[in-house]
Amino acid sequence: MLIYRYQDYFDKGWHVVEYEIHKYLSEQGLPLPDGASLPSEAVFGMEICPEYFGAFPVPEQTPWGKPVERIQINNGFFWVRTEEKGWTLAISYPGCTGLPEKILEAAALNPYDRENGIDNTMGYRFFLPGMDGISIFQLAQSAMKPGRPTDKF
Fold it and tell me: Best label site of 37, 62, 84, 122, fewest CB within 10 Å?
């Protein structure tokens, strides 16, 4: 028997166990608990347990077109370069959790995320250097929050 602390966000086992329980309920046609959704749990699971859920993919699209160059900072944090705007910082939806509303509002979104609501699509937010006075350094530091995986390539 394995025991996991329930709702310890940085506990990898908790994400896997909760996802599997909810996946089983869904497969059996049973309702999920209020507020639970398999896509949301998978996206947040990718942040903490990429070994199980997979790592965040490099964004294939930006608000300014397809990236021509990419550098991964951390799981869910990428520098991407486009022909039109140059380098921009792309941060996954979970990576933006806890950022101040002012910073979130300054982010550029892909058209799909803007039309369907970023809270529904859980896509990337894109930040250009100097965007509304936001320090890219501060945003990049959020990639190294305690508990985040630090694998780089």
Answer: 84
Q: What are phi and psi of 72, to 5 degrees?
A: -85, 125
Place of tokens 């320090």: 135
Q: How many residues does the chain have?
A: 153
Measure the CA–CA gap between 153 and 150, rounded to whole angstroms.
Answer: 10
Taking the C-alpha atoms of residue 145 and residue 93, their distance in angstroms, rounded to an integer, is 15
Q: Give which of 18, 16, 136 is closest to 78, Cα–Cα.
A: 136
pLDDT, average across residues 69-78: 93
- Please state the separation of Cα 12 from the chain's center in Å: 16
Tens digits of residue pLDDT in 104-130? 888 999 999 999 999 999 999 999 887
How much is the pLDDT for 134?
57
Using pLDDT thresholds of 50, 70 and 90, give the confidence band for residue 133: low
